Predict the structure.
Amino acid sequence: MQVTLNPVVINQARLLRELHHLATLTDCPPTTDASLPAPTQAVTRIVFTPRDLEARAWLISLAESAGFTVRVDPVGNTYIRWQGTDPDLGVVGTGSHTDAIPHAGMYDGTVGVLGGLEALRALKESGFTPRRTLELLVFTSEEPTRFGIGCLGSRLLGGVLDPATADALPDLLSEITPGAPSSPTASSSAKVGPQGTRLTLHDVRTAAGFTGPLTDVTLPIGYYHAWVELHIEQGPLLEREMLAADSALKGSGLSPSGGSRGLPAPENSSGKDGALAPERTILGIVTNIAAPASYRFIVEGFGGHAGALLMPDRRDALPAAAELILSVERHTLAANAEAKLTGQSGVDSVATVGAINVHPGNVNSVPSRVTLMLDIRDTDPERREHTMTALRADIANIESRRGVRIIEERINADTPAISGDHIVDTLTTLCEQEHVTYRKMVSRAYHDTSFMARIAPVAMLFIPCRNGVSHRPDEYATPESIALGTRILALALAQLANE
């Protein structure tokens, strides 16, 4: 059923003002590097730290000022709710996260949270009344920084993570930022709990004011009728296609804003029904999300004095770890090459060793132990496992040749998320009606939506980000792209809410 709406106007100035204010709630000093493109702000906002709690309180104040109700579950997932006229129907939801890894950018997650809030406010200000309840959900700990596992809040919400296992997760904050408080009420030297044990999620969330059993976090299948997350792409494809479209359409009489079929731009695209001029912007409609897996490898060798331990006698853990890392790269490239030969994209397998710890870590000591973290993702979990099987064969060879022991620990291995056809069709139709160019695409970064897919039909809406950069201070999305994505999100929420 097509919904007839009064003009829905996105308050771009308000949205940008709030995005920039949220970026100031950071443990990084103001950015003064003139070589970085403006506006740039390095953001560190780790879950349950004072900055995170400050951001949460500020967001709740915005929601309540707009007339929405708020509830918070035991792990800190925050529900901003606009009750519909038929509250017994399944809810239509949107949202993302506001936590940020150290020295990240200001748009990852926050565009989906503040854009979601602006979408709800714009609909309310237009006079729209939802039949189904609309919710904006701010997830706890999408980033794995503090507890070693990503999408903590949505994993619990979707029933993917055992509550007891979650509550026992160790707090890694003191290792990430030595000397940092391990909880909002802890001193700067506090790194352990009672009897000298390491603090856990249960300790930290309780100290932050989030109490109650984690079994209360899980939502039933059917709670959500539909779920749509707005997010920056975190990759280069949309921007590349925008540049190619601009070049191809020069002098053709068509506008890059003409939609997937090259439709002529509307005569008054800058203001018709509150619409924002979408020239140059291409949105991404996500059809599926790659499956992530995380592993910890511990390479155990034999250490000693860098001068006295002779080369023929060495069982150095670090060169063995280096071989392992190169093996990861080699087999991932091989998986892509093989996929391309069968007519697939040939870019869907990615693997990263992004953290490594060398013990004892002295320039004059031969490393006796190396711990490294592997992140491997694929749209095909069988191909991902095939890559891991090839890696394990190399590991056995490295152990034999170098006289080391390599221990593998799987942290998580998730399945791909497939978007709901109806939600993808809704987004597609709205883009064409609004004369907005779009492309259907895969998300190779994983998001909270990956785990919402366990309990609801889902989709994601991507906006381009400059040079495909993310998780860096120079992460950037244009105001026009942010506002356009927010407008399409608002129209989709309205359409889905009145089904």
Observations:
- The longest strand covers residues 291-300.
- Residues 179-190, 255-278 have pLDDT under 50 and may be disordered.
